[in-house]
Amino acid sequence: MTTLWDTTGSEVVKALAAERRAAGALAFGLALTLVVVVDEKHVSAAEGAATLAASAHPCRLLIVVRRQVDVPHPRLDAEVSIGGRLGPGEAVVMRMSGRLALHAESVVLPLLAPDAPVVTWWHDEPPARIAYDPLGVFADRRVTDVTASPDPLSALFQRAADFAPGDTDLSWTRLSPWRTLLAAAFDAVVSERPDSAVITAGRADPSAQLFAGWLQNRLAVPVTVDETGGRPGITAVAVALDGDRLAVSRTDSRSAMISRTGYPDRVLPLADRGVGDLLAEELRRLDEDAVYAEALGTWSGLPNLTRRSPHREHIWRDPMDQTVGTTDALAAGAATSGAVTSGTVTSSTAAPGTAPMTSAPNNERTVGGA
């Protein structure tokens, strides 16, 4: 492991090349580059999740820690390792202070693995618009987690308004076991037609809202989210079938029961998964997730998300400019005022609504192509 203090981007590149030579990794196969964006408070959690995901997918792991943007002097500290505490692959942890943190791409771009796709994951609250962060603009896949936001449903709607093919969110990934169990339960449904569906979940759960969007998109029936669950997350889903009832309900943190009128109950595994497992699942596919886009579009009421351009242009946004914060606050207020009815998906907490952003405010400027 090589540790560099108050260094430069070129020195980090040289240190990585030296580590590769020392490890005999000149021909080391890399499937992708994983860029992790995190703040100092959550570095340990992000490193643990990224290490678990990287152990399943050979990758170059680049962790960007943005610190103290307002300090007068830019500074870069880096840790470069291969086969160290961050897993068997290549890893670089970069702590950036001052104005350098606003231009992290100048350090990250030379470190990307050649001829390999790039996945950017925001461990903390994602930017209001991906185009604000150049680390997301040059990525092939972009992974967010709206549960890190103070208002997850507003953040989820913002992900729909700002959506481009290649975007995904871990609140959707958390649904995979539920969707798998429910789809398997439907294998025994022969002629019955679904009439309606009810999802029971905790309050303001973004996964439950995406589940409702997916069910309405696939079954074309009214879907209601009942936010009276006794625990966080989804606790049950029930589908009415011509007078019968098909349900999947969680029994504990590791299993769920499938029940259907006239059939014996079955208990199957449904374990809670950590962020590392969720991230590893997302790294299995590097193409766009059209099913997620359809579920997100159905829930938000914003059509044709899959037809949007997958390319973004970076929009320069200075967090030290107070007028930018005012503009974002006004946009957030517009997003949360009133309720939106997204098709026949209903919930006791309505999805916030606003029109997709199509142009940059006056205090933003487009500075490059992607």
From TrEMBL:
One Pfam family, short name: OpcA_G6PD_C
Secretion signal span: none
InterPro entries: G6PDH_assembly_OpcA, OpcA_G6PD_C, OpcA_G6PD_N
Biased composition (Low complexity): 335-361
Domain Glucose-6-phosphate dehydrogenase assembly protein OpcA N-terminal, first and last residues per copy: 51-160
Residue span of region Disordered: 335-370
Domain Glucose-6-phosphate dehydrogenase assembly protein OpcA C-terminal: 165-296
PANTHER family: OXPP CYCLE PROTEIN OPCA-RELATED (PTHR38658)
Name of the protein in its database record: Glucose-6-P dehydrogenase subunit-like
Organism expressing this protein natively: Frankia casuarinae (strain DSM 45818 / CECT 9043 / HFP020203 / CcI3)
